[in-house]
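Input structure tokens:
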């Protein structure tokens, strides 16, 4: 497979490069980067020295569509939507890691992302690329909306409980924490070492733009509109997302009942690991991998359930999931090139 990457010098783009270079069945033909056109890719990321001799190229999707079987766009919101056309989609497949096609209501997208959508005609066609939920649709797609990192971890953590009607969805509170790579590689004061180190803070309180994405996907599952409270936090680590979600119970269930439900939904899923009783998901035990670890605890005192999940935001939360989608689109085993065991320490 010939692969092109637009936005190859961002963190998610570089993670795509790292994953794809380990495969014998793919060749990266285009390292796109508006900021580094004409510079050696290995000069931007010296860890790629002697692995990538190529130079960074411009964001020419029309030319790239002539060369690549699949294009990954790991770019800021709005860019992919401005480049996609029917002609391009007739020649190649696109996996977009931005939010351009995740939200089906264009007005909600424009409200939360503060930009005008450049190609709303493709929103309906785009498949939300969470393989554990939309596997069969992904296989037939030519345009994939790769889920956000927070929505991936949040959704996988609570999905079985929503689907089975165990919880009151509108009491759902999602507390999420992410490493600093989730903010991207751009120079921002809030991401400087002295700002992040020895510090932890909430941000996007009651306004984070992943909120409508999570709500929309949970609404599909619940069969009705779902409104949640979602608060993300920045923590001083490079990678990882930890979600702790709380909701009131609607049914009288035992720990065994809930565990059986999680096992029924994820027991055959390669990338979702339901932890044993008493274990809690930890970011360090999924780092560098495409795995999502989930578990739960019933709180009898409050008649609530605590649901927990952890992923690597750059892998299952971005590049790894994108490759997982690529595998499905080309009829390959879903875990091809994604069997990396989590790194520790």
């Amino acid at each position: 497979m010939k692969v092109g990457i637009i936005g190859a010098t961002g963190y998610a783009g570089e993670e795509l490069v790292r994953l794809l270079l380990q495969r014998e069945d793919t060749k990266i033909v285009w390292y796109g980067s508006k900021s580094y056109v004409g510079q050696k890719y290995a000069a931007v990321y010296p860890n790629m020295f002697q692995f990538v001799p190529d130079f960074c190229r411009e964001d020419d999707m029309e030319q790239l569509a002539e060369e690549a079987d699949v294009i990954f766009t790991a770019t800021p919101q709005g860019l992919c939507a401005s480049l996609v056309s029917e002609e391009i989609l007739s020649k190649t497949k696109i996996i977009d890691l931005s939010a351009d096609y995740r939200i089906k209501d264009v007005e909600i997208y424009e409200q939360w992302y503060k930009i005008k959508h450049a190609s709303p005609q493709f929103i309906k066609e785009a498949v939300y690329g969470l393989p554990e939920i939309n596997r069969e649709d992904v296989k037939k797609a030519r345009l994939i909306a790769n889920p956000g990192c927070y929505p991936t971890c949040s959704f996988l953590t609570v999905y079985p409980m929503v689907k089975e009607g165990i919880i009151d969805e509108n009491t759902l509170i999602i507390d999420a924490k992410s490493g600093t790579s989730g903010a991207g590689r751009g120079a921002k004061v809030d991401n400087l070492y002295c700002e992040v180190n020895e510090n932890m803070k909430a941000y996007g309180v009651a306004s984070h733009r992943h909120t409508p994405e999570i709500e929309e996907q949970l609404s599909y599952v619940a069969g009705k509109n779902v409104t949640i409270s979602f608060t993300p936090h920045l923590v001083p680590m490079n990678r990882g997302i930890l979600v702790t979600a709380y909701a009131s119970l609607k049914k009288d269930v035992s720990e065994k009942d809930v565990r059986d439900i999680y096992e029924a939904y994820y027991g055959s899923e390669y990338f979702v690991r339901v932890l044993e009783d008493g274990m809690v998901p930890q970011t360090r035990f999924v780092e560098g991998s495409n795995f999502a670890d989930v578990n739960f605890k019933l709180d009898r005192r409050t008649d609530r359930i605590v649901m927990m999940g952890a992923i690597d935001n750059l892998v299952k939360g971005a590049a790894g999931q994108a490759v997982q989608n690529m595998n499905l689109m080309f009829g390959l085993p879903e875990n091809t090139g994604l069997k990396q065991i989590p790194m520790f320490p």
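The chain has two domains: 2-125, 150-313. Residues 82 and 118 are 5 Å apart (CA to CA).
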